[in-house]
Amino acid sequence: xxxxxxxxxxxxDGVRRxxxxxxxxxxxxxxxxxxxxxxxxxxxxxNGTARVAGVTVERGLFTVASQAADISTRHARYTxxxxxxxxxxxxxxxxxxxxxxxxxxxxxxxxxxxxxxDDLLVVDGPLRGRSHLDRTVGYIKTHHASxxxxxxxxxxxxxxxxxxxxxxxxxxxxxxxxxxVQLAGSAGVPWSGVVRLExxxxxxxxxxxxxxxxxxxxxxxxxxxPHKDPRAPQNLVPIGGLExxxxxxxxxxxxxxxxxxxxxxxxxxxxxxxxxxxxGD
Length: 281
Hints:
Elements: E1 8-25, E2 32-46, E3 50-63, E4 71-72, E5 77-82, H1 88-113, E6 119-124, E7 136-140, H2 150-157, E8 168-171, E9 175-182, E10 194-200, H3 205-218, H4 237-249, H5 253-268, E11 276-280
Parallel strand pairs: 1-6, 3-5, 6-7
Antiparallel strand pairs: 1-2, 1-11, 2-3, 4-5, 7-10, 8-9, 9-10
């Protein structure tokens, strides 16, 4: 109850969309697969009002083909970026990594513009690769793995709205501190409306406890309603609104797809076929 609330709470999220699947033709007789994707990251800043800020939209051609070049269309430019392998999983991973890097850039710019230090940054998703950000927590909506023994997991199931568990250190593939919070508006079923928060493992214990207390005060009132969001209550209202705005900023997918096909046809008909791309479904 004695924890002071930050003056500003910022919610960071990103969205991605594959606009077309492509083949990159080069010197080899076998073309290499790729994806042309749009992605965006941004913030919702809450400090008495809520506003969207820092939105950055990028587009990329992700492929293992070393000879790939940027695709310039009438409506957008897709920058060539190289993936770790040709398989769909590798291409998707390269896209996700670039989106994560973009989110970090947006967060760092937000902190540069707000140097006072009285804020909390909530990242939608795990904190991997972003644990170096100060005053930052990762917000995990779904539970794909169990991190607690049965006795401690029972504490999670018994939480009332607005309550949190004690914090604990997780030493899986990377170390971080974590705790669970019960949101408001849940169905009353154990683990319904429960989210997991995580922060850097380097945080001193006293600061960790203060941070966990702050999240238990700020987040439950922001839970979404089932009649407005199918992912309620875990998909917080600021995050849901930001996702809608980011998807809108990506532009019309069909328009971009037609532009990609037109650019591919023009490139394929040029005398120099090296590096040309053709779009496919």
